[in-house]
Amino acid sequence: MNPFLREYYNQPVFWRDDYGSDEANLERVRVVAEALPQDVRSVLDVGCANGKALLALVRRGSQETLDFVAGVDFSERALRKFDLPRVCGDCSSLPFADDSFDAAICLEVLEHLPQETFSRTLGELQRVTSRYLLISVPNAEDLRRSGVMCPKCFCWFNSSLHMRSFHEGTLYALFEPLFVLSAARLIGPLDRQYWLPLLLRELGRFLLEPAPPAACICPQCGYGRNKSINLSTLEVPSESGNSNPTSSFLKNWVFRAWPKTAKRRWLLALYERR
Predict the structure, then answer these.
(1) Minimal CA–CA distance to 174: which of 96, 267, 94?
(2) Both 138 and 114 in a single domain?
(3) CA-CA distance, 127 to 96, in Å (whole number)?
(4) 19: domain range?
(5) What is the rounded distance in angstroms from the CA atom of residue 188 to the CA atom of residue 212?
(6) Please, is 128 exposed, middle or buried when counting C-beta atoms within 10 Å of its C-beta (0-12, 13-18, 19+)?
(7) Among 20, 109, 235, 267, which is most exposed with the fewest C-beta within 10 angstroms?
(8) For residue range 28-68, what is the model confidence (pLDDT) as tens digits?
(9) Is residue 182 part of a domain?
(10) Full DSSP string of 2-34
(11) Tens digits of residue pLDDT in 178-206
(12) What per-residue confidence (pLDDT) applies to 233?
């Protein structure tokens, strides 16, 4: 994993004790636990973060046959948050043998990955599981709405370092030809966006807070308002930002302020090996 991303996701702000404990995320991990087929006996959570999904699987009352669960994540700080079997590792090079698990889950991870890492991770997910893959991703995310501009080098980038957007149509062939999509559903709260509050928020951001949020780090020059991070030692990936900001600020601002329809927050998809 690129040192830039490793350092970014090791920031303490991401792994507070209450991180992911809001109602929407707790409901998401509950739905994920229920979506896993009942005949699964071993599970690997790839990009397990602070282990909330694994803990939900262990606590699931209807799953009495689950023999072994494990998590892998490259954030050592996140892995300290739970006591189940876990490995500090890279999702694009998993430290497990072929077909080691009945199922692999990968929740809110794929949207963060640069293209080369993304392709390798898809292959690794298929390699380590013998039966099922269960993934969740943001639903039809508008990457431009979360765009911020670095005040130092003027690079535009997504504030959550999301690099791709998924919709229902992109899920069908994601793991072809080895795995076939057996079920897909929209989950999470119904996010509604109204033009007037959005317009006022964007105007406030422009006038009062031109810099990225505190947890952001510019993927091009390393600018960050969180000064506890040693940015001078980081290698910077080229996939995350646009070094030539040719897009007009006004164009992007108007796009983000445009009215949107309500939609569910996440997509959940279950795949089965052919």
Answers:
(1) 267
(2) yes
(3) 9
(4) 3-143+159-192+261-273
(5) 27
(6) buried
(7) 235
(8) 889 999 999 989 999 999 999 999 999 988 887 544 567 89
(9) yes
(10) -HHHHHHHT-GGGG-TTTT-SHHHHHHHHHHHH
(11) 999 999 999 999 887 666 656 666 665 55
(12) 42
